[in-house]
Structure prediction request, 306 residues.
Amino acid sequence: MGHAEHLDGFLSYLRAERQLSPHTLRNYRLDVGQFLEFWDRQAHGQPLSQAAYRDVRAFLAHLSKGRRKTTLARKLSSLRTFFKYLQRQGTVEANPARLAPSPKLEKTLPRFLGVDEVFHLLSAAAGEPEFQTRRDRAILEMFYAGGLRLSELAGLNLPDLHLKEGVLRLFGKGAKERLAFLGEPAKAALAAYLRARRMLCDKTGSRSQALFLNKAGGRLSTRGVARVVEKWARLAGLPGGLNPHALRHSFATHLLEGKADLRTVQELLGHSSISTTQRYLHLNADYLMEEYDKAHPRGKGGGGGG
Prediction:
């Protein structure tokens, strides 16, 4: 089987088994395709079963000039997934990308999730009727739907929620009040949680006004909320270190990628200064470059006449 067949089979597997978006599939095709071209130039006809750790390192070194570390990290992740697929198919015995160290990323803003990753996280916390699972699903949905800060979510009380309208009243930094909005999935998750919450209060005798409760009927602490996110990220197989702030960053990034106005995102996040919101524009340089190439008259997709 040739390289093209391996790549097509891999993409078909991702499309069917992991149900990835067309954008994510394009990235996989690009990343793996670049490695296969590099392998053909370096390996002189040898099969992929001969690829080794040093070949992956050489490929990343070849690409490193002029590329962001986040892009290189994505390409390495794509290769790990590709060779893991080839292992399952019996094409290779070992995964040469498994032990390759990921590029050290600059510590700027916390990471954010792709849309596919968010949906995967939310679906991981679905389907079970227990109080904790319903509570946890509602927490995850609210972080992503409303862009809440950890302290804001943990501090919510029942009167702050207007479920029918899908509106939350929040008190952010400096006791500044703002509204957050919830889509239908978040409203449904909250409705299911509130039913479970009533049963818990009947059982424990709790009269707490806190929206989110622990198993004893008391307010769920900020640390308890953070543990909810960490737990489901781990169960969903997402990279370590995911915290509530990453979901807030995902909320903002996906709004901006969806062409939301920067001022609108500023209001939704509760930022006092638009310069704080502008930092989110730097989170996805690859996406911004794509948009530039499509829109600018002298970009790759723009007209060159004149």
Q: What stands out?
A: The radius of gyration is 23 Å. Strands lie at 161-162, 167-171, 177-181.
